[in-house]
Amino acid sequence: MTFEQYVKNLEVPQNNIDVVLDTDAYNEVDDQFALAYLLKSPEKLAVKAVYAAPFFNENSTSPEDGMEKSYDEILKIIKLAGAALPDGCVLKGSRKYLQDEHTPVHSPAAQDLALRATGYSPQNPLYVVAIGAITNVASALLISPEIKENIVVVWLGGHALDFGNSNEFNMAQDVAAARVVFGCGVPLVQLPCMGVVDKFYLSEAELRYWIDGKNALCSYLTETVVEAAERYAKGRVWSRVIWDVTAVAWLLNDSNRFMSSRLIASPIPEYDHHYGFDPNRHFIRYVFEIYRDALFEDLFAKLVK
User: Fold this and answer.
1) Mean pLDDT for each 10-residue chunk of the chain (305 residues)?
2) DSSP helix/strand/coil, 115
3) Burial class of residue 234 in the structure, from the number of CB atoms within 10 Å of its CB (0-12 exposed, 13-18 middle, 19+ buried)
4) What are the start-end ranges of the H helices in the chain?
5) Which pLDDT value is given to residue 86?
6) I want to staple 218 with a disulfide (CB 3.0 to 4.6 A). Which of 46, 49, 125, 211 is the partner?
7) What is the pLDDT of residue 72?
8) Neighbour-count burial of 8, counting CB atoms closer than 10 A to its CB (0-12 exposed, 13-18 middle, 19+ buried)
9) Could you give the maximum distance between any two Cα atoms of the chain, in Å?
10) Which pLDDT belongs to residue 108?
């Protein structure tokens, strides 16, 4: 790929594009919004596959259990959204994290991406939106390194460069996978969590006013957020980040209506949960500002259709 083409692939796509989504959908309440937003944006985004990503926290007993629960949640959201996707396009992902930076975790999702990406090119790339631990994507890149020419990865992971650390859930679960993706030279768009996309939050009142009861999907999304928030808020005032939506929104960010970004030298995710820096590394695109109201307006309008 030429340098000019590489930089072009780090810009917001202007034409209709093919997309795969890699999501730990059962981990929190925001993945469901991101998947629904993707499914509800067929005017530009053609969903070709959805991959279940591993996660391990209070909502799972292991990374494998998190992946399995995410797989089931993906199917639930697709049904609620009334989306017609090809048979076999929802695939299970990694059952564990990378053991090192050289050995892929083979899974149906990683194998699918490694093969699917061969049908694309630098001039017509496949867009890979990742909103969980990036194990599946890193594994595909390790299985078939040449696919870095044919894909663009958009990942919500890590924190802002000036936040003080990179100890964010998606990145911290599999630092080796993050190092593979940040280091291999694939065109990468990073949406950092704390310090950038943490601005993308909402309240119960907004959910009730804008989407609750509009359809089965909207009611499910509303109740999922409210139930989760009330468990941790315990009667206190609360708001809830729905930050995974921003990764999908990057693909729809014509004229910078939802966010602003810049090119930077690819930072290095370190195992001590900080970034390393080398100004001679290849460029990635780094999102540094989210325009909350404009994005929520578009999201809510699509969810209620």
Assistant:
1) 97 97 96 98 97 97 98 97 93 98 98 98 98 98 98 98 96 98 98 98 96 97 94 90 97 97 98 97 98 98 96
2) helix
3) exposed
4) 3-9, 30-39, 63-81, 108-116, 135-143, 169-173, 175-183, 204-210, 216-233, 245-250, 292-303
5) 87
6) 211
7) 98
8) middle
9) 56
10) 98
- What does the buried/exposed string (b/e) look like for 251-279 if buried means 16 or more CB atoms within 10 Å of the residue's CB? bbbeeeebbebeebebbbbeeeeebeeee
For tokens 């001679």, the residue is: 280
| Region of residue 47 (left: phi > 0; alpha: psi -120 to 50; beta: else) | beta
Q: What is the pTM of this model?
A: 0.97
Burial of 202: CB neighbours in 10 Å, binned 0-12, 13-18, 19+? buried
Of the chain, the end-to-end C-alpha distance in Å amounts to 40
Dihedrals phi, psi of 35, to nearest 5 degrees: -65, -45
> What is the DSSP pairing of strand 17-23 with strand 45-52?
parallel
Q: What is the pLDDT of residue 232?
A: 86
**Are 23 and 74 a contacting pair, CB within 8 Å?**
yes
Judge whether 251 and 14 are in contact, CB under 8 Å. Answer: no
| 294 phi and psi angles, rounded to 5 deg | -65, -40
Give the three-class secondary structure for 116.
helix
Of the candidates 78, 305, 75, the one whose C-alpha atom is nearest the C-alpha of residue 211 is 305
Calpha distance 234→232 (Å, rounded): 6
Closest by CA position to 154, among listed 268, 15, 17: 17
